[in-house]
Amino acid sequence: MRFVLAIVAFVAAACMIALGIAQRTVFLEPASVSVGTTVEGNGPFTVIDSDALLAHEGAQTVSIRGSGDTFMSYGRTADIEAWLGDIDFTRVSYDEDAKELATTVVRGQTVNPMDQARVPEVNSNGLPATAPNPNPRGSDLWLEEWSGENSISATVNVPDGISVLVATDGTAPAPKNIRLSWPLDNSTPWAGPLIAGGALLLLVGLVLYLLALLHLRRSRGPRRNLPKGPRMPKLPRAPKPKMIKANQITGAQRKSIGRSSRIAVLPVLLISGLALSGCSASFWPDMSAPSTASATPTPDVTAAQEEFDELPPPAVTVPQLERIVRNVAVTANEADSTMNAELLPARFTGPALLERQMNYQIRAGFPEQALPAPIPASPLEIILPQQNSSWPRTVLTVILNEEDPTIAPMTLVLTQNSPRENYQVEYAITLAADAVFPEVAPASIGAPPVAPDTKFLVMEPDKLAAAYGDVILKDTESEYYTLFDIEHDSFVPQVGVAATAERRAALPATTDLTLTNEPGPGNTVALGTIDSGAVVAVNLYQMESATPNDNGTVEFKASPTKSLSGVEKTTKGLTSTRSDQLLFYVPAQGSDEKIRLLGFAHSLIAASEIP
């Protein structure tokens, strides 16, 4: 019976092991599924639509092949189409019926009125001039981009509403060969248990076989007493065999002994190898998989989700803004180190651009002038993109200085005027040492834009610069003084009434000092906070005139004003203008809080002799 059980165990073990191995070999499903197409024509741009990327579940591997330089990027479908504008392109979509990729040619839309760079010019014949297509490389709209020689392959995991743009340089034909692939779950969770169970059963069969042999050997002994016969004579004692040393064993004997040891070790090696072959996670059932059952969302959660889905998307994503800020930091550092103002317009505009341009001019004649506050590349402490699917777009971010934590954080307000323009820094403001930034929405939601003339704040944003300027000139006599938190304001003591009185006292009695201010040309930017208030960036110009009152001559020592104006002495006087970039928190209407200054930048931008 033991032999029968051993044979059954051996047969069952062989079947289980064979079935487990077959699941990982002959019965193994493919590891991925892919579809491909060859784009016809010589169009410069190809867009792989979102439905093609989501034709199967899982991460998407996009492979393109062409000739020469190739380019690929992905971003929001609406952003890609806005960037293409009036340019024809080929759309790659997924045909559900045919289970393959399909291509169609899409005619470009009307030129975006905000995209001034794309307004067609008129040639000498009065006909619209043909403008070259833009190069897609380096656009801030892309969430990520790749470049390569002849071919590119990248794996992404994009949600609905994201498409892929394929091109070369915007002029040459786009790569024609496109292939999409997705991973498939070809795990065999029963292969491991079958192989391991077969190995265990093989071991059980081996034990049963050995027990059967032992039982058979014992069963061959005498079963009954036999009658005694005549006693046989004793035989002579045989001589004891001599001990044979290992070096005296012949070749045949060595082979016999080696074969026997291998026969004994074979089952152990077989069992160990089969057990180790099932160590891969794809060989075993996943016991950590969460339950698929989920609670039905309550009506309030569903309504909140629907309301969230209806909001405009944030202007940028976090990785997108991190890449933009890195590019801004590189441009700023290179321009500051070389004092090359021609590099600035690519990434700066408005008050931030003017501050650096004038700083370089001042340093040319007055090297002691400090550079503008550096712009660190990371980390981004606060990210507040505007909720906006059109243009212009705005985003605010607060950046810490990783190299020197003692340096105050830098606040950048960036704007993008059209799809084909990159983000530019409009305000670069250093946060005040004791500034308490208001609570804002997460970057994944963004901040609602606030109209400059809104009545829902304690003060309209477009009146903020003039009101704060009035406080600087009049101090407590200003009608707006009680609206501002002057107690915690670190800028008014530097430029206010008390500071002006000290400067007048330091001048000769023959020189008069006159100060005025007015809102600057910088745009008023306001982004909503969670408590219905707003973070507001404004521009203020402060003008100062120093004139002799005795018809004498005013002389100027080496200074930024002298460097910028080129005037050493004058009988008419000298006027100078300083630009203030100011960042405020403005509470909601009805709040008991006051308007707080969060940060400022104060720089000389003009100086000249009074005509």
From TrEMBL:
Describe the location of the DUF8094 domain by residue ranges. Answer: 314-608
The family database entries (InterPro entries) matched by this protein are listed as:
DUF8094 (IPR058407)
Alphabetically list the UniProt keywords. Membrane, Transmembrane, Transmembrane helix
Q: Which residues cross the membrane?
A: 190-214, 263-284
Q: Which domain of life is it from?
A: Bacteria
Q: What is this protein called?
A: DUF8094 domain-containing protein
